[in-house]
Amino acid sequence: MFDTINSFIDTFIQSLGVMGPFVGCLGILLESMFPILPLFVFITLNFLAFGQLWGFLISWIFTCLGCFLSFLLFRLKVQTWVYRKIQERGLISKETMDIIANLKFEQLVTIIAIPFTPAFLVNIVAGISKMSYRKFISSLLLGKVFLVYFWGFVGVSLVDSIRNPIYLVRVILLLLIAYLVSKIINKKLKIC
Asked: How many CA atoms lie within 13 A of 23 on its CB side?
């Protein structure tokens, strides 16, 4: 079964030709705005098509760009309207919005770095809250490094990650490193 999937992926990548980079970039960009699209598939395809270094860089740049555009859309275009609707319906209290806006830098980096966190939801909540641009962008750039590496690593070596539990230990270590690095950066840059 895995050989069939691997063969299909190879054939698909080769059939894209020069359009491959555009498909990978566009897919990742759109996934940040439309959560129904599978990010791990696009990252895996980029890693397989362009290798670990270029696949990582392409995936990281475009997932950060997509998340920032989504954040910007909600911040500039619909923040007031969404915030008003949320308050009218009592969906989220003002206190909850304040908690979100006042998340510590390392907490936000950790949330973004967790592979199963819905990026679209984080972008919306950050966009409609009073979170600073600097904190969001900084945590996005750092947190997505770990997320992209995780999905590229797991996607490319799916069979190995199922058979060998050491890969799960590596994921936990990546999250711990993301938290510690964000703490250090927070102290140095005084983001929060």
From this structure: 16
